[in-house]
Every structure is written in structure tokens, then in C-alpha cells.
């Protein structure tokens, strides 16, 4: 009888172990499956032509920018002319529409040159880098001073760093744009900018659909990519996002909705790595400057957190190279960026700090 009781306890323990193992394997399988839902289809999974190259586009954009920026709403379109080079090497000027967009950067006391949305005549964009595009976001330089342009370059590189970690991220394309103020050639300026992949094209590339909802329980998200996103935001010192309110985050679900949706972040201009002069921490964060890191992720199982840390360690060199190898980022900004990344890697290589930052300080969803 004693033998049977011991045997029964052993069997129950074995069953419990197998059940836990099965659950863990299912979670991992779900993550892997949704990360590459239909990898066997070689014709899918590619970004639109605009984002298949990292070559810097050389463009001219002419418009009545003073009128464009004087309009407060972000729904009024204005005519503009875009001059580009097509795939045959010929210069081409196309009539397009533009409008302002954004929230903070659309305020005049923040940015005199706000982010834009460009609307293309689709058929006329054939045989150009913008083939297949309709409306697309353009991240601009904000203000005339050189350090603002450097901030735009840094934000572009942050997107590229996230691309290193996961394909479930927004693609970006760099450009040098000459902005020509209509009838005021003296106001012509040339600055770095970048185009941001459309949400629909991102979802299509991942063989999924955008999951549109005002709020979402973070515990219902796919745990692995969520942890990756939260730790990336911690790395760059960004707290200006929410996977609950879906602020600066979109959710993508597989088309059958079999698996939990994954969060994909955007808008990194308030990150500590950039430290834009208009960026201030939200009072709820409780820090004095955006450069102070705060982990905004919700509590995860240890094996998920440590798996994520190993990804960052494995990709460290590639992440550093994103910043070190981009020629338009000046020496001072490169050194500042590398120093800021060094601080993150010092934390994830220290067991006590990992426990403090990613477990003890992790948030808990109020039931």
C-alpha cells in the first residue's frame, strides 16, 4: 500500500510535469507559428517594393508649406509635386496630395515642420519606388536646427534596430528630401526623412490582420513578442506607449485568430535614446527625464523573460552596428547612443538587476 501511494504520487508528479511541458511547448509553438504563419508560401511575406531596399531616396517635394502647416486639422489635403527618379533612371514629377499628421509634433511650439502623410495617384507610381503605395506616413525633421535632423535619424535607426530583433516590426525607408516652398525658393531646405510602412501592408506581410480594438488585456497578448517589445522599449528608454490602451502600438492577429495577437510598436521620438527637447515623462511614470529607464512590461514567466534576454544578447553586435555604421549619424550622437545601449546591456548581464527591473518592478494587470 505504501508502495502504491508512492507510485501514485510519482505518477501524479510526472503527469503534472508533462502537462506543464505541454503548455510551455504550446506557447512556444504559438509564437513560432504566428511569427511565420505561412513561410512555405515563397510568394508571400515580402515587404512592398519601397521597403525592399535601404538605399536613401533623393526626392524633391514642392508645396505651399506655409498654408499646409497653418491648418490645425489633420484631414485637409493640399496639392504638392513630388520629383523622383524612376526605375529606369529618369526624373519624373508627379502631382500628389499631402497633409499634416501626428499629435505633439503637429503643435507649432514643438515642430515648425510637422510629420506628413503623402497620398499618391496609384497608377502614376508604376515603375517607381512607390509602386503599390497609396497613402503613406513621412517622418520629417521637425525644426531647422541640425540636432533635430539627427533626432530623426536616430528614430529611423531605432526602427532598424527593432527590425534586427523581429520581422514583426514596421519597415522604414530613408530619404533625403529637398522641400521647396511654392514661390519662395529662399526657404528651400534639404533634410533627412523616412517613410513608414502602412499598417495594412505590415499585417499582410505577416499573413495576418490588424486587430482593431480600443483597449486590450495585456495578458491576452502573445507573451513572447510582447516581452520582446517591452524589453526593447526599456532598452531605448521609451515609456510613451501602452499595450493596454494601444497607444503607439498596433495589434496583429493571424487571419483565423487561432493565436493571441502580437503588439507592434511605433513612434519612438519620446525615447530616452533620442531625448528630444519636447519629450517629457508622463507624471504617472515618476521620473525626472525621459532618459531614465522604466520597465513598462507586465509580469511574465521567468522562462519567457530569460529567453528574451538571450535574444538581445545574441543580437547585440547587429544592434550596435545599426548605429555605428550609419554615416549620416554624427560622431557625438553615435557615442551617446552606444553609451545608452551599454547601460542596458550592463543591466541584462547582471542577475540582481534583471530580478529587480523585469520581475520585481513588472506591472500586474488589475483583475
Brief characterization of the structure:
By secondary structure, this protein is α+β, with helices and mostly antiparallel strands. The chain has two domains: 49-200, no CATH class; 207-360, no CATH class.
Task: Write the topology of this structure.
Layout (H helix, E strand, L loop, with lengths): L1 H34 L21 E7 L1 H6 L7 E8 L5 E10 L15 E4 L15 E5 L6 H20 L6 E10 L7 E8 L2 H7 L2 E3 L12 H14 L12 E6 L7 E4 L36 H13 L1 H9 L6 H18 L2 H10 L7
Parallel strand pairs: 1-6
Antiparallel strand pairs: 1-2, 2-3, 3-4, 4-5, 5-7, 6-7, 8-9, 9-10
Helix pairs in contact: 3-7, 5-6, 7-8
The major beta sheet can be summarized as: 7 strands, mixed, barrel
Radius of gyration: 23 Å
Q: Count the domains.
A: 2
The helix-and-strand class reads alpha+beta
**What would the principal axes of the Cα set say about the shape?**
globular
Number of helices: 9
Parts with pLDDT < 50 across at least 5 consecutive residues: 1-11, 17-23, 29-44
* SSE sequence, one letter per element: HEHEEEEHEEHEHEEHHHH
What would you note in describing this structure?
The chain has 367 residues and is α+β, with helices and mostly antiparallel strands. Helix content is 36%, strand content 18%. It has helices spanning 2-35, 65-70, 146-165, 199-205, 223-236, 302-314, 316-324, 331-348, 351-360; strands spanning 57-63, 78-85, 91-100, 116-119, 135-139, 172-181, 189-196, 208-210, 249-254, 262-265. Helix 3 (146-165) runs antiparallel to helix 7, helix 5 (223-236) packs across helix 6 (302-314) and helix 7 (316-324) packs antiparallel against helix 8. The radius of gyration is 23 Å and the shape is globular. The model is unreliable at 1-11, 17-23 and 29-44 (pLDDT under 50).
Amino acid at each position: 500500500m505504501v508502495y502504491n501511494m508512492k507510485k501514485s504520487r510519482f505518477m501524479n508528479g510526472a503527469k503534472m510535469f508533462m502537462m506543464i511541458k505541454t503548455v510551455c511547448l504550446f506557447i512556444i509553438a504559438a509564437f513560432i507559428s504566428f511569427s511565420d504563419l505561412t513561410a512555405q508560401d515563397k510568394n508571400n511575406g515580402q515587404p512592398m517594393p519601397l521597403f525592399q531596399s535601404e538605399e536613401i531616396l533623393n526626392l524633391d517635394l514642392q508645396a505651399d508649406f506655409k498654408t499646409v502647416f497653418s491648418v490645425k486639422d489633420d484631414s485637409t489635403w493640399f496639392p504638392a509635386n513630388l520629383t523622383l527618379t524612376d526605375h529606369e533612371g529618369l526624373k519624373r514629377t508627379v502631382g500628389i496630395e499631402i497633409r499634416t499628421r501626428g499629435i505633439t509634433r503637429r503643435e507649432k511650439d514643438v515642430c515648425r515642420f510637422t510629420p506628413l502623410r503623402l497620398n499618391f495617384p496609384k497608377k502614376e507610381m508604376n515603375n517607381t519606388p512607390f509602386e503599390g503605395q497609396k497613402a503613406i506616413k513621412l517622418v520629417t525633421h521637425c525644426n531647422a536646427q541640425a540636432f533635430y535632423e539627427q533626432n530623426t535619424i536616430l528614430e529611423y535607426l531605432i526602427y532598424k534596430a527593432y527590425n534586427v530583433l523581429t520581422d514583426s516590426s514596421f519597415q522604414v525607408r530613408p530619404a533625403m528630401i529637398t522641400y521647396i516652398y511654392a514661390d519662395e525658393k529662399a526657404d528651400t531646405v534639404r533634410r533627412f526623412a523616412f517613410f513608414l510602412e502602412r499598417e495594412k501592408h505590415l499585417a499582410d506581410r505577416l499573413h495576418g490582420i490588424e486587430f482593431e480594438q480600443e483597449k486590450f488585456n495585456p495578458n491576452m497578448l502573445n507573451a513572447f513578442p510582447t516581452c520582446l517589445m517591452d524589453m526593447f522599449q526599456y532598452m531605448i528608454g521609451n515609456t510613451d506607449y501602452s499595450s493596454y490602451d494601444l497607444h503607439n502600438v498596433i495589434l496583429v492577429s493571424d487571419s483565423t485568430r487561432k493565436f493571441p495577437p502580437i503588439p507592434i510598436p511605433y513612434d519612438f521620438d519620446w525615447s530616452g535614446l533620442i531625448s528630444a527637447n519636447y519629450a517629457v515623462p508622463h507624471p504617472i511614470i515618476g521620473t525626472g527625464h525621459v532618459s531614465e529607464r522604466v520597465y513598462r512590461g507586465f509580469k511574465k514567466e521567468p522562462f519567457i523573460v530569460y529567453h528574451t534576454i538571450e535574444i538581445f544578447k545574441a543580437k547585440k553586435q547587429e544592434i550596435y552596428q545599426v548605429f555605428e555604421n550609419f554615416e549620416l549619424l554624427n560622431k557625438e550622437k553615435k557615442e551617446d547612443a552606444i553609451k545608452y545601449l551599454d547601460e542596458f546591456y550592463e543591466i541584462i548581464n547582471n542577475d540582481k538587476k534583471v530580478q529587480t527591473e523585469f520581475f520585481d518592478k513588472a506591472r500586474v494587470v488589475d483583475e
